[in-house]
Write a structure and sequence with these properties.
single chain; seven-stranded parallel beta sheet; globular
Length: about 280
């Protein structure tokens, strides 16, 4: 076998999701954008979906520049009609849906101090219910194919139960809202229930739980000293960049994970060690 032949074979092995059609929500920036670009490099057709319409189309153009066709589209994952319209648009453009990455969440604009019931419900409607709605929107298409990959985005915030210092002087002061963390532990639970319901149809449902990732959103809402401290609690002592999560998403979207479902994969440099 010549060197050229070896190189060609390696390229084929690397492109494990070539020609797959993947919807990635919340893909206009941050981790979602990193997923979209990596999927495009791997040869997948990406539907870049986000409530930020123009940014989604710009990322789709970046994906298309890498070779495969891509589509930018607006979606509000908390609105059932919007999620169904997105799924229909993907089918109209590409004829199938192979992968759904439920990455959309209120995070960049998250108000950690807002403690009202209305805001709690709003965060859950996007970060948890949105994953359920998007999955419902694509499931009938995946069922007809008898194959599909659904990848939820959880977070290690789901497993950090220690709230730190607690003020015990004022009994009228409410506890923190925990909205983001509650939504993300809900995503982990949703992963397991959906895996059981969709597995007989040949659909795998798994989740990724990233640690603190140095996106613009993290830099905006997590104080630098806290982010640095969390890195020092990890085994690898390394801060995550969005691109560090993309390989896990590709694996879960590929045939290599066909016998894996209902699992939450933590990617955080070794701080939260489940199992």
């Amino acid at each position: 076998m010549t060197t050229t032949e070896i190189d060609t074979g390696t390229d084929e092995l690397l492109c494990v999701i070539r020609d797959r059609v993947a919807i990635i929500t919340g893909a206009a920036q941050g981790i979602g954008r990193a997923y979209a670009l990596r999927f495009a490099r791997e040869g997948a057709h990406v539907v870049v979906a986000d409530i930020r319409d123009q940014q989604a189309r710009a990322v789709a153009a970046e994906c298309a520049a890498l070779g495969p066709a891509a589509l930018g589209a607006r979606v509000d994952v908390a609105d059932e009609a919007s999620t169904r319209a997105l799924a229909e648009a993907a089918i109209e453009r590409f004829g199938r849906i192979d992968v759904l990455v439920n990455n959309a969440a209120i995070y960049y604009d998250l108000d950690r101090t807002e403690n009202t019931l209305a805001y709690f419900n709003r965060v859950l409607s996007v970060n948890l219910t949105g994953a359920w709605l998007m999955s419902r929107a694509v499931e009938r298409f995946m069922k007809r194919q008898r194959k599909g990959k659904i990848i939820h985005q959880s977070s290690t915030a789901a497993y950090l139960g220690n709230v730190g210092m607690v003020d015990t002087d004022d009994p009228e002061k409410p506890m923190p809202p925990f909205h983001y963390s509650v939504a993300k532990i809900g995503v982990a639970g949703l992963t397991k229930y959906m895996a059981g319901a969709l597995g007989p149809w040949g659909i795998n449902v798994n989740a990724i739980a990233p640690g603190v990732t140095m996106t613009e959103a993290t830099k905006k809402i997590v104080p630098e000293e806290i982010a640095s401290a969390l890195v020092m609690f990890s085994a690898l002592r390394k801060a995550l960049e969005p691109e560090d999560l993309a390989g896990t998403a590709v694996f879960l979207a590929s045939d290599d994970s066909d016998l894996m479902t209902g699992q939450v994969l933590v990617v955080d440099g070794g701080m939260i060690m489940l199992g």
